[in-house]
Amino acid sequence: MANDPEEKQPPVPPAAEKPAAKTPSATPPAQAAGETPVKPAAPASPPAAAGPPKPAAPPKEAPPKPEPLDNELVKRYRARFGEAIREATLDRKQAILVVAREHLVEIAQYSSDDEQFNFLTDLTAVDWPKREKRFDVVLNLYSFPKNERLRLKVHAAEGEPVPSVAGVWASADWLEREAFDMFGIGFEGHPGLKRILLPDEWQGHPLRKDYDILTQDTAWVRENLGIESGQ
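RE: above sequence
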């Protein structure tokens, strides 16, 4: 019997789908049993860009040198005390008078009463161990009425006492004790000159330039603290 064209043909099975292509995985293949996993190498960081060279530091300027001073203040002091005013200079707008050690008290009294430098802001010292007059004793004065500053300075040799000005300015009491403690400078006429920062039994004066600060007073530390100095 002839085939009928309208006769339904059996359905054609769909084509088998192709498996999707595998995308490469970042995960490394599994390691064999017992092997240490290998970590992937970290990507190399790009080299840091070289910055511009640092500019050279500007050269330091030398500090200004003191200049001779002969203003009205200095003229009044010289008219009153003559050769006892050894030197007068101006250093960075600060008037400085170097005065004779033996005339310090009367110059201090005049400074307080007549020139109205009624506040001793500081009294300290500077050690020049190679100089005959080893110490500079420095008094910094301030005038409240005039809003003005003045520095008095005296030179003293090793063992040479400096007249105390505690009777002129009360603040000199503790300041002179500190200079005695740190430098070993004696202040003649002080009401109670003794150490103020270190123990009374301490040996030496730490702000002298020949004092070995690394050694300290090992005997005092051993005797009073029961330990060896840690320096």
